[in-house]
Amino acid sequence: MPLVERLKFRFTKNYDAVPDVIAAAPGRVEFIGNHTDYNNGPVIGAAIDRYVFVALRRIEESVFRFSSGDSSYVAVEDPTQKLKGKRSWINYPLGVYDSLIRRGLKPSGGFELVVDSDVPMGAGLSSSAALELAVCQALCTVYGLGLSREEMALASREAENEFVGMPCGILDQGVSAMGTSGSLVYIDCRDMRFSTIPLGKNYSIWIFNTHKKHSLVESMYSERHNECFQAVDGLNGVGLRIQYLADISPADFQSAKSRLLGTLSNRAEHIVSEIERVNRVKHLLEGGRVSEAGQLLFESHASSRDLFENSVEELDYLVEILKSLPNVIGARLTGGGFGGAVMALTEDAFSPDYAESVASAYRGRFGQPPEVIQCRLSDGVRVVERIESTDTIEPALG
Ligand code: GLA
Question: What's the whole-model pTM score?
Answer without folding.
Answer: 0.95
